[in-house]
Amino acid sequence: MKYKELEDSLKDIRINKESINQVNELNIQYETEKKEQQITLQQTEIDKQSEQKKRMLWTTIASLIAALGLGSAGAMFYRQKRQLRRKNIEIDRQKQKVEIQNNIISKKNNDMKESIDAGKQVQEKIVLSRPEYIKKLFPESFVLFKPRDGVSGDFYRFKETKSGKKLFAAVDCTGHGIPGAFVSFSGSKILDGAVEKGLEKPSDILSYLDDEIISLQKEEGQKDVFAKYGMDIALCSRDETTKTLEYSGAVNPIYIINGDDKQTNVKEIKPNKSKI
Q1: Is residue 121 part of a domain?
Q2: For 212-220, which contacts have Cβ atoms below 8 Å and span 24 or more sequence positions?
């Protein structure tokens, strides 16, 4: 009996010891799992903090890059703005220069136009024969005159001699504008002078005209003008009594047109090839 009780007691002791071991093992396992969980949580927290630090770092880098970029862009914008301001100042200076030049050119053009208008009036009143005078000499005549410039080196002249012969000339001065007008003015005065001297034959009048032009070439200040410009002329004399037409020309021919509605004949009379 005593051995039985002793054996049972030993069994209980072994059972209790095993239970204690199991409890200890469970406790150790629990503690281990708890520590593992803590370690996992800590690692997770560390990872989060590391990720946050990385984001902060990249955010800081991006901010620095943006700041540098904005700074560079700002500096570039400032340089471009300064260059643009300089260019605008230079453009304004150039515009002022152009305006000054335009004003000068405009004034010169106005002065030239006034001179040309004045020359045109002089030419119409002095050089060219008046329309009413032309109609008096030749009632059925007309004049086609279209100068290229305001004043022309070309002119026409009608004159009646003391004996009643009617002279008419078409003159082409080899020059235009003011120099041509000056030559035409001189030529018209010389032609009038020839008639006043009593010359009536066209050939005699052209010889006189040529001599006078040569004399003008020898005068001081006129040599360059008349050496450069000359005159081509066709001069005719109409005798109403004999119904004859006499012609003399230097370079310029004349054309005689006759006929009727069915047939028209044109005859050219050649001039002398030497100009005045």
Answers
A1: no
A2: 213/186, 213/187, 213/276, 216/186
**β-pairing, 244-250 with 254-259?**
unpaired
Angle CA 180–186–190, to nearest 5: 140
User: Helix H segments across 123-176?
Assistant: 131-137
CA nearest 169: which of 140, 148, 196, 190?
190
pLDDT digits (tens, 9 = 90+) for 254-269: 998 887 777 888 899 9
Q: Specify whether 144 is located in the same domain as 70.
A: no
Q: Which two tokens stand for residue 181?
A: 């007008």
Considering only residues 59 and 72, tell me which one the structure prediction assigns the higher pLDDT.
Answer: 59
Q: Are 147 and 117 in contact (CB under 8 A)?
A: no
Does 88 share its domain with 135? Answer: no
Residues 86 and 134 in one domain: no
Q: How many CB atoms lie under 10 A from the CB of residue 249?
A: 22
Domain boundary among 98, 114, 140: 98
Residue 234: closest CA among 190, 174, 189, 171: 171
Percentage of the chain exceeding pLDDT 70: 78
Whether 111 is covered by a domain: the verdict is no
Query: Total structural domains in the chain?
Result: 2
Q: Cα angle at 41 between 35 and 47, to 5 degrees? A: 135
The pLDDT of 141-164, averaged and rounded, is 84
Q: How many CA atoms lie within 13 A of 213 on its CB side?
A: 26
Residue 91 is part of which domain span? 1-98
